Amino acid sequence: MLQKFITCLLLSIPLFSLAQKQKKDKSAVTAAATITVEDMKRHLYTIAGKEMEGRDTPSPGLEKAAAYIENHFKSLGLVPGNNGSYRQTYPLYKDSVLGAAMKINGTALELNKDFQPQSNNYSAEMRFSEVVFAGYGISDGTIRDDYKDLKVAGKLVLIADGAPADYKPSQTGFMSPANAAGKMNAAMSRGAVAVLIIYNNYPRKSMTSNTSWSPSSYKASLPPFTFTIAPSVAENIMGEDGKNIMDKLKSGTAVLKNYPAEIDLAYSKITKTNSASNVLGIVEGTDLKDEYVFITAHYDHLGKRDTVIYYGADDDGSGTTGILEMAEAFAKAKQAGKGPRRSIVFMTVSGEEKGLWGSGYYGNHPIFPLEKTTVDLNIDMIGRSDSSRHQGDSLNYVYVVGDDKISTDLKIISERVNKLYTKMELDYKFNDPNDRNRIYFRSDHYNFAEKGVPIIFYYDGMLKADYHRPTDTPDKINYPLMVKRTQLVFYTAWDMANRNEMLKRDLKLEIPKRF
């Protein structure tokens, strides 16, 4: 009898231990309860309010939003995230055109009527005594090579817009060898220093004198000096061979060869500078303080067009508000003596709408070692319901992306935490990198994933009626649902911050073709 009792007792120990592991952490529950509808509304009506003017990158409205976030972090006693500063500032550049000129055999051409420069040109003057005509300028492996038998290194190349009717490219879309980017890559790879591209749609509207802001001013390589020209200009260069050149290309009778001509090309610009910033605050850990859990969201949006403000309440005022509330929850837990073992870095980034600028800058200029960053939990739109979602409970779900891509630990923890605390429907609709929406690559988590950091992206879905429109306003947010989604992220971060080991990095990130 005693032996049976001991045996039963021994068998029950694993089950007892498992039950113990599954018990809620009362300190986590207490801290999560500070994430409230009232606080969510207060923050979001400010962040997505008129004063912020849509938070374009860069803009005064964006700076006001950054100051609001920074002041909130200060009020909570968060440690500044960048060597005594709450900001990680990165530079931005914008080009303004001063002038452009082109001459053919001594005759000056008229801007917009005969030619236009490409906006990515650099300030330069070039003179050539001949031009190499390369037809459509397509190079596509064994399928087609318009550069066959042509030497273009160090030369000016003349090509035409379009492609032959019977040509089927090996890749479509942006990666097609027949589009402008594909043709420029072909010319550049062969060493061309300048390119003229023949277009039919001349005369054109006046060119834009200013480019958009960009974080990229220093480049590893420069594209060829590039201008578009009217068919009449090609005739001036090629003589009789250039008459009806677009028709000759279609019929296959155009002659691909070198043509003598004195060609002058000139372009000048000035570059303006500006800056934007990521805002970082830290709740420092205890025994594992030199390891980091990142929680991110982007605080920028589209700004305003004329006088119309694009408020960006859901995109991504909701995620930013979630950051502010989780920062408060972790700060209060620490004040109560229940602080995290690992340091929690709360980072709101700018420039996401422009091309993941802020997170990209952080990924290339990390303040904390990426190899010591156990996870990035990224939030971009958590305040609405997807009207196209017809299964399950539309008031108790969140789309989860990326939890199974880099670490086999992550999905297990995510689902266990959800089952224990929030019991939401975790929808993996957008989790496939090959999904046509390409959600995995379209928010700031990707700049962590690309560096090998495990990530989870939380998302409410494409809200077509209000997505990137002025109607994305705070009054349309489902605040109780936003609270619940924020609490899910909070509990997941709590687990990540307090577990004994960092997450394994045992899966290779697969990038789909044609990305």
Q: Can you walk through the features of this model?
A:
With about 525 residues, the chain is an alpha/beta fold. The protein folds into two domains: about 25-95 and about 275-500, Aminopeptidase, CATH 3.40.630; about 100-270, Glucose Oxidase, domain 1 (3-Layer(bba) Sandwich). The chain is built from 13 helices and 19 strands. The termini are far apart.
Secondary-structure blueprint:
Blueprint: H1 2-21, H2 26-32, H3 37-47, H4 60-76, E1 79-80, E2 87-104, E3 107-108, E4 115-117, E5 124-133, E6 139-140, E7 144-145, E8 156-160, H5 180-189, E9 194-198, E10 225-229, H6 231-238, H7 245-251, E11 258-283, E12 288-298, E13 304-305, E14 308-309, H8 313-335, E15 342-349, H9 352-355, H10 357-364, E16 373-379, E17 397-401, H11 408-422, E18 425-427, H12 446-449, E19 455-459, H13 479-498
Parallel strand pairs: 5-8, 8-9, 9-10, 12-15, 12-16, 16-19, 17-18
Antiparallel strand pairs: 1-11, 2-3, 2-11, 4-10, 5-11, 6-7, 11-15, 13-14, 17-19
Helix pairs in contact: 2-8, 3-8, 4-8, 8-13, 11-13
